[in-house]
Amino acid sequence: xxxxxxxxxxxxxxxxxxxxxxxxxxxxxxxxxxxxxxxxxxxxxxxxxxxxxxxxxxxxxxxxxxxxxxxxxxxxxxxxxxxxxxxxxxxxxxxxxxxxxxxxxxxxxxxxxxxxxxxxxxxxxxxxxxxxxxxxxxxxxxxxxxxxxxxxxxxxxxxxxxxxxxxxxxxxxxxxxxxxxxxxxxxxxxxxxxxxxxxxxxxxxxxxxxxxxxxxxxxxxxxxxxxxxxxxxxxxxxxxxxxxxxxxxxxxxxxxxxxxxxxxxxxxxxxxxxxxxxxxxxxxx
Length: 285
Prior knowledge:
By secondary structure, the chain is of the alpha/beta class. The chain has two domains: about 10-135, Response regulator (Rossmann fold, 3-Layer(aba) Sandwich); about 170-280, no CATH class. The protein has helices at about 20-30, 45-55, 70-80, 95-105, 120-170, 175, 180-200, 210-220, 225-240, 245-280, and strands at about 10-15, 40, 60-65, 85-90, 110. The protein has a five-stranded parallel β-sheet with strand order 2-1-3-4-5, sandwiched between helices. The longest helix has about 50 residues, at about 120-170. The radius of gyration is 28 Å and the shape is elongated. The termini are far apart. Mean pLDDT is about 80; it is low at about 1-5, about 155-170 and about 280-285.
């Protein structure tokens, strides 16, 4: 019986310290040579960690008993190193409770070394990789749908608020009254979105509060309202997400939600302080 070929090449990380078992695995994987399979072997968990930090893998074949780690703790550590990479466990222990526990923790499959052969191993690899790819595609479609919904809501907010505000106050928006300044604000806000994204990706501890306060004070100079902030936010988001992949678009939308709320807060605080100063009673001599 032959296995169905996978169209895309597989990059496989084998974490196994037993030389004899490694030779068997290499023999079992020979039928997959036509699929341009690339294999990296590590005998220590610490070496596997370095490999996972430096390159991308489609699947991990994991022995739970390593020189520097044993049992399900090995799998948990691998999950911590590479939470998005599917894992098939290869164990010398035929333990049903252990296998069920591993699958419940997120392993794609649990194979025992004394029962595995080429057909079983290749089928497990195929199923694990394809299942993971389908899940990724489904997740990307869901994120794309959510991103489109969020962008649609953002685009509709300024128009709705503009009509109500104009009727109540007979005032034009910042975009209409000062178009050049509006574009400068959009660019400045866009740079803050980039900084927020870098902060998230690289886990930087720096805060954007000072820069957001400066933007709020600049906006207050033009006596802007919530409508103007939303228009700036929407324009910046549309610019940043126009040609971005869905993952980056999602990240931009998530980070910008916090930014716009924080900016609104600083703007309200600035107006509140201004009103207190203006309305503060004068002390008679």
